[in-house]
Each structure stands twice: as C-alpha cells, then as structure tokens.
Design goal:
The complex is a heterodimer.
Chain A lengths: L3 E4 L2 E4 L4 E8 L5 E7 L6 E7 L2 E5 L6 E7 L2 E7 L7 E8 L11 E2 L3 E5 L1
Parallel strand pairs in A: 2-11
Antiparallel strand pairs in A: 1-3, 3-8, 4-5, 4-9, 5-6, 7-8, 9-10, 9-11
Chain B lengths: L2 E4 L4 E4 L4 E3 L1 E4 L5 E7 L5 E7 L5 E4 L2 E4 L9 E3 L8 E8 L6 E3 L3 E6 L1
Parallel strand pairs in B: 2-12
Antiparallel strand pairs in B: 1-4, 3-9, 5-6, 5-10, 7-8, 8-9, 10-11, 10-12
Classes of the chains: A mainly beta, B mainly beta.
Chain lengths: ~120, ~110
C-alpha cells in the first residue's frame, strides 16, 4: 500500500463552522505533513510531524490545529476560517524527516476546501 | 534561505514535440533535487530525483541532470504525449532535511 488517503475530497464550510480534515497512511512512515495549495501556486508547507510530535509549524494561524493521534493518522482541525483560507489542502508522508535530504514525499489527492 | 526558480508557463506543445522546463536553485550545502508532477484534480507525484552532482534522474521518458556548477536541474522529455499535460514542480530538500522547497510550477499542455 503506497497510498496516502485524504477525506473528505471536497468540503464547504461557513466561517463559524468547525470541521476536520483527515489523512491516513499505512506505509510505516514516521513523518507526516500538511500543505496548503492555492490555485496555480505551489504547495506551501504548514506543519510537519515527526514521530508523532510537531516538529515544524510555519507560523500558521491558530484557526488551523493539527493533530497526530498515531503514526498512521494526521488530522487538521478547522475553526473560524476565513474565505481566503479556501484552497486545496494536501497531506504527505515520508519515511523520516530528520536530517535526511533524499527521501521522497508521498502526497494524497487533497481536500478542496471552500469557506463561505 | 533555499529557493527554486522555474520557468513560467503555460507551455503549449504538440504531441511528439521536445519538452524542456528550466529549473535553477539556491541552497546551502548539497541539497537533493526533485521533479514532482500534478495532474488535474490530484495531489503531487514524484517524477524523478537526484541526490548529488552529475546524477541523472529519469522516469517515464523524462530526464533531469543535477548540475552543481550552474545550480540547475532542467527537466526534458524527447517526445511528449497528451497524457503528459500537467503542472510540473521543481523542488529541493536542503541540508536541514525536513523541508521541501517548491518552485512556482510550470503548466504544460500537450495538444494532439
């Protein structure tokens, strides 16, 4: 199994809603990532978890709250989002992010989020 | 900090034409270099990679050579197909190893 599975594929939410994005992998990877991608732009790193601990937070607003319940799962909790947060949210995983430059990232297909 | 610059698109080609997408980078130390491809409505897939100077990555007819002297990693394919229509991202992973830095992406459209 070389897949990273993200649910839901599409999500529409209001600015007062609370929702969660989910990501799952069963490749035994110990590093997991959240990226945000606006239309016609490259992905921007948001968070990195390494061995279930948050290792990188790229100054992301607190209305985005990541969670890594175990080595296979990664969640992104959303609360009080703004319309400008509408984007494709991509999850990725890799063997281990610590000090290794040549490992590849496996990406999910993303959740297309629209904030009304 | 690390950065990647790639040619802006869109690049429009006819089937069987030769494709080149230029990519240059700035990084300290010896980064690993990657090309990722994103098909419409999907996430990114690794196309090829190179981890040291003069390495050539290749996959599905695509090639790129890690040129340290020119800090470049240009992507080439000799004969494109309609199915190669996608957005291509050049990326590097620097000495710290925990962050992938992407270029702006190049949209390629191959017409029959």
């Amino acid at each position: 199994d070389t897949e990273v599975t993200q649910t839901p594929k599409h999500l529409v939410m209001g600015m007062t809603n609370k929702k969660s994005l989910k990501c799952e992998q069963h490749m035994g990877h110990r590093a997991m990532y959240w990226y945000k991608q606006k239309a016609k732009k490259p992905p921007e790193l948001m968070f990195v978890y390494s061995y279930e601990k948050l290792s990188i937070n790229e100054s992301v607003p607190s209305r985005f709250s990541p969670e890594c319940p175990n080595s296979s799962l990664l969640n992104l909790h959303l609360h009080a989002l703004q319309p400008e947060d509408s984007a494709l949210y991509l999850c990725a995983s890799s063997q281990d992010s610590r000090g290794t430059t040549n490992e590849k990232l496996f990406f999910g297909s993303g959740t297309q989020l629209s904030v009304l | 900090g690390d950065s990647v610059t790639q040619m802006e698109g869109p690049v429009t080609l006819s089937e069987e034409a030769f494709l080149t997408i230029n990519c240059t980078y700035t990084a300290t130390g010896y980064p690993s270099l990657f090309w990722y491809v994103q098909y419409p409505g999907e996430g990114l897939q690794l196309l090829l990679k190179a981890t040291k100077a003069d390495d050539k990555g290749s996959n599905k007819g695509f090639e790129a050579t890690y040129r340290k002297e020119t800090t470049s990693f240009h992507l080439e394919k000799g004969s494109v197909q309609v199915s190669d229509s996608a957005v291509y991202f050049c990326a590097l992973r620097g000495a710290a190893g925990n962050k992938l830095t992407f270029g702006g992406g190049t949209r390629v459209l191959v017409k029959p």
